[in-house]
Design a protein that fits this description.
The chain is mainly alpha-helical and about 35 residues long. The protein has one domain. About 75% of the residues lie in helices and about 0% in strands. The model has no long low-confidence stretch (mean pLDDT about 70).
Length: about 35
Amino acid sequence: SIKETLQFVYDGNYWDFLVTIYGSNSFDFNKSLPA
């Protein structure tokens, strides 16, 4: 559901998921964010 998806994102699991997929070598998470 949308609520479950938002909860997943807000819990931070979504970001951990993205970092895991892209990997620290090919994806600089900090540089991808606005200052």
